[in-house]
Amino acid sequence: MPEITLRDRFEQGLAAPICLTWELTYACNLACTHCLSSSGRRDPRELTTEEARGLIDEIAAMQIFYINIGGGEPMVRRDFFDVIEHAVARRVGVKFSTNGTRIDPASARRLASIDYLDIQVSIDGANESTNDRIRGRGSYAAARRAMDNLRDAEFGEFKISVVMTRENVEQLDAFESLAAQYGAQLRLTRLRPSGRGVDVWNELHPTLAQGRALYSWLRDRPNVLTGDSFFHLSALGNPLEGLNLCGAGRVVCLIDPVGDVYACPFVIHDEFLAGNVRESGFASVWQESPLFRSLREPASPGACASCGSYDACRGGCMAAKFFTGLEMSDPDPECVFGHGEEVLATREIASRPHSSPDHSRRIPVSLSARP
Amino acid sequence: MADAEVFDESRHWRLSDHVSLRDESFGALAYHHDSRRLVFLKSRDLVELVRRLDDFDSARSAVDELVAEGERDRYVAALAHLSSSGLISA
Predict the structure, then answer these.
(1) What contacts B29, CB < 8 A, 6 or more positions away?
(2) Residue A143 needs a FRET pair 20 to 30 A away by CA distance; which of A125, A201, A270, B82 works?
(3) A2-49 tens-digit pLDDT
(4) Global confidence as pTM
(5) A9 touching B, CB under 8 A?
(6) Are B25 and A6 in contact (CB < 8 Å)?
């Protein structure tokens, strides 16, 4: 009798997401080259404070235990504290990602006073030059100031969040030391060709050899967080920590700043748009959207059917395939056996999709010019 | 957070105040708001047992009342596991 595993259950979808990301704003004071939400300018249709509070009430009613807040830079919203304090008061935990530029000593103390709050400060290099090439001049120093302020405010164990690139995989040990220095937890995630990432992915995604090194490094350190990012690497052997499946529309989804609901944070594109919370509320989108229902149907292994490791990686990341111009039935572009690279090298890819909403600034910004 | 204490089934246990339970088709998801741990309860009977622990003087009497005879050791072991993650408290 084939046992129905939890993973099978998850692939059929849950009553509510485990991991709900809510990009609070498209406004951002940085302009990272790989921004997965193509953020920069605020969208005038952004959910109002009242709408944000209403959405949190619905999230609480659905018993979604915590939300991942991102952006854009969430702290540039004037009602940022209002929104997160409302969530925590409703017993919805908040994990938010920030570039740290707005964490001064006073806001660090306020953050430290809030229960059920986790903070992820982003850096993408273990030194200024590696980081600032991607995140912009002054961004490394700003993130380190934020970390200093959180430490001085005795926030506790915050997280340092790093997108793995070809330029920083070699710095893994340095990231680990930096986290240890702050008593912080290290969190590593996968570079997706999403948003503006589509323009830099070719140059910045780790090589296959770096992927193997990363896999071994992570296997030795089960306490390093990955948000289940690297399940495509689990085809190398024993699985990494996590559910090891594509959770899009099944256990994961994204609400964007204007209330649009997408299958995951890495597919802000019309093709993966399930509905809008303004029209019908979030629960009905989650439960009834035809897109999400189809994502919960058993997936075909496609080109990976004959691969002995299909059960380990399940064909990899939907977003990575989509934004590199691959079909859903193709291997992951970073397939550890090189099958994705082979397809990309041999097939004529007519055009690679770009994220539909693009809020990038039209003029480059310099953080150091800010007051 | 982890309670090194051996699970004492003769004591009164209940769902921790820090824990939320959400019903799912396979059982329930439990989330510990302090430790941020997510735990899967893989049967509806276990969920029912955990929800009703508070009504009984001891975990043992809850198991004896709510669980079929041949299954009881397995459910006590499941409760011991939940206590070690801090999901239920004495």
Answers:
(1) A14, A18, A65, B21, B22, B38, B39, B40, B41
(2) A201
(3) 556 777 777 777 899 999 999 999 999 999 999 999 999 999 999 999
(4) 0.92
(5) yes
(6) no
